[in-house]
Predict the 3D structure of the following.
Amino acid sequence: MTISPNSQPLISLRGVHKSFGAFEVLRGIDMDIRKGEVVAIIGPSGSGKSTILRTINGLTPVNKGTIKVGDITVSDPELDQVKLRHRVGMVFQQYNLFPHKTVLENVAMAPIQVLKQPRREVEDRAQKLLADMRLPDKANSYPGELSGGQQQRVAIARALCMEPEVILFDEVTAALDPEMVKEVLSAVRKVAEDGMTCILVTHEMGFAREAADHVYFTDKGVIVEHAPPAEFFSQASDPRTAEFLSKVL
Ligand code: ADP
Ligand code: MG
């Protein structure tokens, strides 16, 4: 993706702090993400990666700092949740599909029920997205009839069906058997290549290196450093990053 360095960020975080009780999970997070950019967040378990994503989509209210997505101030207590849901999609490690609804119903449900869009139009879009996710013949199946990799691709189609401006992917391959990791990473790559702004929390270093425009490294609630992947993986300078990379590469 070619990104104009001067364009306004689509997403910005400034001085974001979050505590759970006495425990400060985020200790001043700053990020700028431009439209069409693919950002990977990596770091040790418990460093606050999921919490960062959850603050961006409004699931976790912050204690201090500001978060903006386009013209929406997510950190505003008066936040319009429906508008935000429309703009920010999220895909989780556990796909959380409704087991008693078909694949098509799972994908089409939120735009119909939450955004009140016409069923026909949404279902046509859902069918196209299932084809993009290489699941053209699974519309009438139930989640339990699909493999983990297929269910995760349904979850990605469901996020896309809301036509968001950004999709947050939280370790979407972590629960999958190795042979399914590749097909889900290909699906994520397609979403990115089609121009979607993506923030990926991932332990797949090879994927971060290839697919991301920018890599952020978190440790204990702070961003230790960030750089384009070629630079990040070859000359990360902080000892915390070096230590992490020595364990995972
Ligand atoms: P990561 O995704 O990098 O593994 P998380 O953002 O999930 O890290 O969590 C960071 C820290 O915050 C962890 O120590 C976790 O136990 C704690 N934490 C996350 N969510 C909550 C919560 N709802 N209540 C209390 N502690 C939480
Ligand atoms: Mg996490």
